[in-house]
Design a protein that fits this description.
It is a single chain. The protein is mostly helical. The protein folds into three domains: 63 residues, no CATH class; 92 residues, Winged helix-like DNA-binding domain superfamily/Winged helix DNA-binding domain (Arc Repressor Mutant, subunit A, Orthogonal Bundle), CATH 1.10.10.10; 103 residues. It is 67% helix and 4% strand. It contains 16 helices and three strands. It has a three-stranded antiparallel sheet with strand order 1-3-2. Helix 15 packs antiparallel against helix 16. It starts with a helix and ends with a helix.
Length: 273
Amino acid sequence: MQSHKNTSIVGEICARLDGLPLAIELAAARVKLLSPLVILTRLQNSLNLLTNGAKDLPPRHQTMRGVIAWSYDLLDADEKLLFNRLAVFAGGFTIEAAESFVLCPLLMKKTRKAINEGQRTIPILDLIESLIDKNLLVAKTQTDGETRLRMVETICEFAIEKLEASGEAEMFRRRHARFFLAPAEESNPHLQAADAGVWLNRLEEEHDNLRAALRWLLETDAETAARLAAAMRGFWVFHNHLTEGRSLLESALEHAPADVSFKLLNGLGMLAK
C-alpha cells in the first residue's frame, strides 16, 4: 500500500515539474533526506529545493535557478520586461490577455514605435514567440483554435521573483485583477441563459487567474474583491466549487460594501444547499 502511495506521489511530483528532466533529477536527489510526500509539499518553493545537481556539471546546470537564470540573462531588455510581467498570470493565459495589459507602452520602445505606426500587436507577438523559442513559455493550441500560453511552475516562480524586484508587481497584479473582473461580471446574466455552458467553460478555463486575482484583492482592495466574489458565485455553484466558494464569499463579506453584501449572502445561500 505504501509503495502504491509513493508511486502516486512521485507521479504528482513529475507532473508539478512539467516533466523537466533536470528538475526531476534534482528532486530525486532529495530522497536521501526527504520523503516523496515532503518533497511534493516543498515544491511550493521549488527553486530553493532543486539545488543539488551533479558536481561534474557546469554550475549553471547544478540548480534549477541557475538554469533559468542563465536563459534569462540571454534575453534582451524587452524580453525580460515581458517575462517579468507574465508572472502575474496563474494557470496560463491567452495572447489577447498579454496584449491587453501586460505590454503597456511604458518603457517599451518597440511597442511605442509600433503604436505610432498602427501595428500594436506585432512586437508583442514577436516577443512572445521569442520566449517560446527560448523555452521560457509553453504554447498549446486548443480545440477551438485559440492558443493558450503558460510558464512551467519553476520558471513562473523565478519570474515572480523578478517581477517583485522590478517594483511593478502591485501595478500589474492590479491590472490582472481588473482584467479578469470584467469577464466574471459580464458572465452573470448569461449563466441562466442558453449560452450558459460557453460562459461557464470560459470561467473554468480562467479559474486559476480568477482565484489568484480574488485572493490578491482580498488583501488589498476589499470593495473590488467583493465585486469579483459576487460575480463568481454562480460559477462556483454550477461547477461545484462549493467549499472554495463559501470560503471566499465569507472572506469577501467581512468588508463588503452594503450594495454588494446582498449578492454575497445570496451566493452563500446557494452554496449552502
